[in-house]
Amino acid sequence: MTATQPLELLAPLSGVLLALDKVPDPVFSSRLIGDGLCIDPTSQTLCAPLAGVISDIQDTGHAVSITADNGVQVLLHIGLDTVNLAGKGFSRLVGEGQRVEAGQPLIEFDADYVALNARSLLTLMLVVSGEPFALLASDSGPVTLGQPLVRLSPGETAETEDEEEGDALFSKPLTLPNANGLHARPAAVFAQAAKGFDASIYLHKQTQSANAKSLVAIMALQTVQGDTLQVSAAGEDAAAAIKALVALLAEGCGESVAAPVEGVEPRVSLASTSLLRGVCASPGSAFGQVVQVAEPALSIPETGGGEALERAALDRGLHAATEALQSLQAKAVGSAQAQIFRAHQELLEDPTLLEQAHDLLAVGKSAAFAWNSATLATAQLFQGLGNALLAERAADLADVGQRVLKLILGIHDRAWELPERAILIAEQLTPSQTASLDTHKVLGFVTVGGGATSHVAILARALGLPAICGVPPQVLTLADGRQVLLDADKGELHLDPDLAEIEQLQATHREQIARRQRDVAQARLAAITRDGHHVEVTANVASLQEVEQSLSLGGEGVGLLRSEFLYLDRHRAPSPEEQAGTYNAIARALGPERNLVVRTLDVGGDKPLAYVPMDAETNPFLGLRGIRLCLERPELLREQFRAILASAGLTRLHIMLPMVSLLSELRLARTMLEEEALALGLTELPKLGIMIEVPSAALMADVFAPHVDFFSIGTNDLTQYTLAMDRDHPRLASQADSFHPAVLRLIATTVKAAHAHGKWVGVCGALASEALAVPVLIGLGVDELSVSVPLIPTIKATVRELDLADCQIIAHQVLGLEEAAQVREALRLYHAATVETSPVVEH
Ligand code: PEP
Ligand code: MG
User: Fold this and answer.
1) Which ligand is the nearest neighbour of the Cα of 764?
2) Is 614 in the same domain as 586?
3) Domain CATH number, residue 393
4) Residues 6 or more apart in contact with residue 486 via CB below 8 angstroms
5) Range of the domain at 635
6) Which domain-ending residue is among 391, 409, 427?
7) Secondary structure letter of residue 171 according to DSSP
8) Helix crossing, 184-195 with 238-251: angle to 10°?
9) Could you read off the pLDDT of 97-135 as tens digits, one per residue?
10) Over the stretch 772-790, which tens digit does the pLDDT of each residue have?
11) Is residue 252 one of the residues assigned to a domain?
12) How far apart are CA 463 and CA 468, in angstroms?
């Protein structure tokens, strides 16, 4: 393209000019984005400085780019750090792709609001296409809207469309960490880095691609935090470009993206830090060497060799992947891992995914390209739904997607050659990667992504390995072989551990193993405090297998059967007979003397169920969750009641309703249960209780108590709703703490109300599985602790080491503290003074 006509740019605003060098922001003043000028505005409508097409207008309305017919591209950016205003104070008057005339209004803004709420109102006009530039006015002083301000002298500018040549290399998908996506500043840093390579480079988001050397193209992708991106490159230095740009994206392209778990720490560079923090995904500790787990870049040809041929290649890949997954299921460590691979197999059969891939084959794309695009787009969709469990599904999809992709491309995974004492570090460790690990050589996992409920966490717990997740991306730059200390209990990775720390940790580790062996050996003993108070310790389960395991570990019944998990990975609803069969088998395993508390479907929020389709909700945790959803779809609940009631008489049957916040919900559900029981000819109803996991239910426990047989406190949800902190939010993980006195006070209120009406109270949230919390829960009067299966022996042993009278005193004390950290500290001191001085009985 030629662009030889001189071109004048008009002032987009009235105001006072400021030389670019004086702008207090290095990305602009260093001309990283392009040369231009700055106006301190006195008007409030940004107008087009030239005619052209809107090549990008940010959703937040703070920046807009125009491309003229001759290729000149101008970026207008209102204010500094205004991306943080998330659109407040800006109204867009034009849309992307729209042609505009010079002087046409583009964006209106509220100057007062922006000036008060952003770092600065200084507005930039930058020529990002790089044409030589002459100012027609002095570089300081007043300007008037529409006044000619700049003359561009475009010379012969060759067409610089950067077509990818030959087969491109693709990076593995990565998650964008920047809080505000790739807005002007990080996009400029990224584009600048890309320009340092000869290769043609593209940044991909779902089906959109942007030339990575073009700031505007990157901004036009409108990325947001959590987007799945891929970098592709073609040319001699493609591999180096991908490596560098992926690392840059992981680090935040010059923005702070660390997730300081304590909430207040500024980002620290690896050079100056000796500690990285994350969240405990699986407890324990290890001292070992760093092994970075990076997927090799894959070369994906875009164009296929004919639809029939490519379709056959895709089918072969899918078939081979299914076979591989079946054999992985057979070799899986425990049911959790097997379930994950079964879920992967289901994903391979997903009709929407296959349809997307076939559509791309039909327009001439290669099998690898079609499959990769379809999985990326679907993973992105999952991630964008604002649902933690679905976001983790996105990681599964990426995993199974890569498996098929490699099979199509003929790349064979070989088992890793791991060094001894490996601490694996990865952006996200996929189930497939963990399945092919030599677990004798691995001591622990550290991941940037994932949450405490992610599959990596599940697998780490199944393997008994310590793991932390949500660690800042700098961890990916640690050198292989570096000796590090992983203290998963505290969520810490020590980069320069000293000998004393290592010895201390190893001693603690040995003690923990000795305690565990002792606790398991004594698991059958009842949980009775030293002063004779019995506390029932039951299990939280999601399968028959877990019920059986709980009994072998001394579990006294089931305090929470999460019924939605029985069929989590199914696309079709189980038949009524199948449901009844499952409850029946569990009831028989427990026998007539033990409690079985079946929680009715708790779908929605963090727990989608594939066969219960739901509308997307802006705020799913506050939406149609649990009992609310069931009351909207009464047939679902009635069918479940019938299936549960089929086990009446086999065990001490209890039915529990989740997410109850209103008395009317309990009343409606009770009426349905009574009707179903009557229809089945039952003379006696099973016990009916509710979960206390919403503050309204806890505060009104005295009103609910006469209408229930029992309460069970769900501290996971109770914490998130009390503190208004998403239970899966990686940055809030350390603050969304169930030890917070606010949560403990609600537990106290609930117990008091229940006991006043002669009803028992359990705690089935994760707080009950924390040995540190046991004294306070017992002291507050909780009657039953329903805990995660492997922890049954520990919790029972802890109860046996306590005195009820002491627990009541400490419980009373901690209710008066100010924050969770103080509660934890007080309990730690109490624990050290009591439990740890108890003699360890060797067996
Ligand atoms: C809870 O919220 O504490 C609970 C036990 O239920 P879930 O974790 O299944 O939501
Ligand atoms: Mg809950």
Assistant:
1) 1
2) yes
3) 1.10.274.10
4) 285, 286, 287, 288, 423, 443, 444, 446, 466, 468, 492, 493, 494
5) 529-837
6) 409
7) P
8) 160
9) 899 999 999 999 998 888 877 778 889 999 988 887 788
10) 999 999 999 999 999 989 8
11) yes
12) 14
Q: Which atom of ligand 1 is nearest to the CA of 764?
A: 5
In this structure, the answer to whether residues 11 and 141 fall within a common structural domain is: yes
Same domain, 400 and 453: no
Helix (H, G, I), strand (E, B) or coil at 43: coil
Ligand 2 midpoint to CA 562 (Å):
10
Q: Is residue 267 part of a domain?
A: no
User: Which of 716, 721, 761 for a ligand 1 pocket mutation test, highest count of atoms within 8 Å of Cβ?
Assistant: 716
Ligand 1 atom at minimum distance from 717 CA = 2
Residue 265 lies in a domain: no
670 C-alpha to ligand 1 centroid (Å) = 21
720 lines ligand 1 (CB under 6 A): no
For the Cβ of 765 lying below 6 angstroms from any atom of ligand 1, the answer is: yes
Q: How many domains does the chain have?
A: 5
764 annotated active-site: yes
CATH of the domain at 478: 3.50.30.10
Q: For position 22, which CATH number holds?
A: 2.70.70.10
Among the bound ligands, the one closest to the CA of 716? 1
Distance CA 627, CA 638 (A): 12
- Residue 756 gets the label, from left (phi > 0), alpha (psi -120 to 50) or beta, of alpha
* Residue-level pLDDT at 116: 76
**Is there a single domain that holds both residue 432 and residue 401?**
no
Contact 41, 149 (CB under 8 A): no
Closest listed residue to residue 124, CA positions, set 149, 102, 100? 149
Decide whether any atom of ligand 1 lies within 6 Å of the 604 Cβ.
no
Distances in Å between the Cα of 537 and the Cα atoms of 122, 411, 469, 556, 679 are 63, 50, 29, 6, 34
**Among the listed residues 604, 186, 209, the one whose alpha carbon sits nearest the alpha carbon of residue 376:** 209
Does ligand 1 have an atom closer than 6 angstroms to the CB of 602? yes
729 tagged catalytic: no
Give the environment of ion ligand 2: residues with CB less than 5 A: 693, 714, 717
pLDDT in tens, 718-765: 999 999 998 877 667 778 889 999 999 999 999 999 999 999 999 999
693 CB within 6 A, ligand 1:
yes
Angle between the N-to-C axes of helices 455-463 and 388-409, in degrees from 0 to 180, rounded to the nearest 10: 80
Q: Catalytic residue among 253, 280, 764, 807, which?
A: 764
- The CATH number covering residue 543 comes to 3.20.20.60
Are 551 and 645 members of one domain?
A: yes
Residue 395 belongs to some domain of the structure? yes
Name the residue with the closest Cα to ligand 1, atom 9: 562
How far apart, in whole angstroms, are the C-alpha atoms of residue 414 and residue 403?
12
| Same domain (yes/no): 107, 218 | no
Q: Are 45 and 105 in contact (CB under 8 A)?
A: yes
CB–CB of 427/433 below 8 Å? no
692 and 742 both lie in a single domain: yes
Least confident stretch, 50-64, 250-264, 618-632: 250-264
